[in-house]
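In this supplementary section we document a worked example of the pipeline. Step one takes a protein sequence of length 126 as its only input; no multiple sequence alignment statistics are reported here. Step two produces a three-dimensional model, which step three serialises into structure tokens for compact storage. The input and output of this example are shown verbatim.
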Amino acid sequence: MASEDVTVTVRLIRSFEHRNFRPVVYHAVQLDQTVKEFIVFLKQDIPLRTSLPPPFRNYKYDKLKIVHQAHKSKTNELVLSLEDDDRLLLKEDSTLKAAGIANETEIAFFCEEDYKSYKANPLSSW
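The serialised model returned by step three reads:
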């Protein structure tokens, strides 16, 4: 059985309070790789993307969460839904396919510490 390659949009979240994020599209993402391997790939790739401003390239991203899956409903949150963490946060030891990633899935990549502080006090600066 051949590995399945999909297109995934990764939403780099720099700031939850300021709603500061940038989408980056990745083509030919293999679903049989683990979430940890994909995070390592992203950490190596993001600093090399000259199309991103330096604050996005040099940030300490460490966690992935599903934002939206193709042909399913979207949340009203502008940056990232604060609900369903047990289902939508990706566990590092599972494969992307087992974690629920499919073609045209949008995933958020962010700093877990920032997410927890924003979730405790979800105020926007503007």
